[in-house]
């Protein structure tokens, strides 16, 4: 199914809150605003913060690498600070996820020319999602306008998508290394029925962590060769830098070298060549997990 705005089969889970109104952009339209002030109004990688307490590993990582502001509520929950309608307000992670789900809902309904209202949905979640994370997902779905919601573990959904339940008897391991989470499940499948024998994973391990490792490496290079600390780089430049390293990471899946261009207002343009060997070296601790 094609997305009505981004013209593709996938949509980035990125949300931008317009600082002067209540308008919200989602997907590629939101990505375009990532380097526009205020930088903290564009939210990505929100899945890790869903259903989390402020005192958590996910929040610790977000406060280092995310361009948006993460603050605690009086109850110790997580909220984001953004500017909407000219005022600084707090937004719950559930609201951000709801914006993504509402966009997908509208896209699906537009595919049917508005003649079909999609009120029921199955949403996949990491197998290791806690009860609070699952509850937050259901809350987001309700906020997005869905009436009946069922949650399905992502590895199980992947096995279904590959048709592994169609026939025969087999043991299947599903390895799902996503942007923010890692899921590994062992399934026993027989005549279209399945049994989950075991699950493992890490809700704080994914492609985002590879990006963060590369950002740390580039910051180290900037500090060593140009005397630029992370604080001097600033949030807006960090967004640009993270986008550059993500593109380099993707390129290195097929090529041996990738050039990272660091374009910042306060220093001349800097180029750095990243090799696949260096990427593998930097990601050694991630592989060991």
From TrEMBL:
Alphabetic keyword roster: ATP-binding, Nucleotide-binding
Segments traversing the membrane: none
Pfam families: HSP70 (PF00012)
Entry-linked InterPro entries: ATPase_NBD, Heat_shock_70_CS, Hsp_70_fam
Gene3D superfamilies xrefs: 3.30.30.30, 3.30.420.40, Actin, Chain A, domain 4
GO MF, one annotated term: ATP-dependent protein folding chaperone
Domain of life: Eukaryota
PANTHER family tied to this protein: HEAT SHOCK PROTEIN 70KDA
UniProt protein name: Uncharacterized protein
């Amino acid at each position: 199914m094609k997305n009505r705005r981004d013209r593709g089969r996938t949509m980035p889970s990125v949300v931008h809150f317009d600082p002067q109104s209540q308008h919200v952009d989602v997907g590629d339209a939101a990505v375009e605003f990532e380097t526009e002030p205020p930088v903290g109004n564009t939210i990505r990688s929100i899945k890790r913060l869903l259903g989390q307490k402020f005192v958590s590993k996910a929040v610790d990582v977000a406060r280092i690498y995310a361009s948006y502001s993460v603050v605690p509520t009086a109850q110790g929950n997580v909220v984001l600070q953004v500017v909407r309608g000219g005022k600084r307000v707090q937004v719950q992670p559930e609201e951000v996820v709801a914006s993504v789900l509402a966009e997908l809902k509208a896209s699906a309904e537009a595919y049917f020319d508005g003649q079909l209202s999609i009120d029921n949905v199955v949403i996949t979640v990491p197998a290791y999602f806690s009860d609070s994370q699952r509850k937050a997902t259901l809350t987001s779905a309700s906020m997005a306008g869905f009436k009946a919601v069922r949650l399905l573990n992502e590895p199980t959904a992947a096995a279904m998508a590959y048709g592994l339940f169609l026939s025969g008897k087999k043991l299947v391991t599903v390895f799902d290394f996503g942007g923010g989470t890692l899921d590994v499940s062992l399934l026993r499948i027989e005549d279209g029925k399945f049994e989950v024998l075991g699950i493992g994973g890490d809700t704080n391990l994914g492609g985002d962590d590879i990006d963060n490792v590369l950002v740390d490496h580039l910051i180290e290079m900037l500090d060593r060769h140009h005397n630029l600390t992370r604080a001097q780089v600033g949030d807006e430049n960090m967004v640009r830098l993270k986008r550059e390293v993500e593109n380099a990471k993707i390129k290195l899946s097929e090529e041996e070298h990738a050039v990272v261009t660091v374009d910042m207002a306060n220093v001349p343009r800097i180029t750095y060549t990243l090799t696949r060997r260096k990427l593998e070296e930097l990601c050694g601790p991630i592989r060991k997990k």
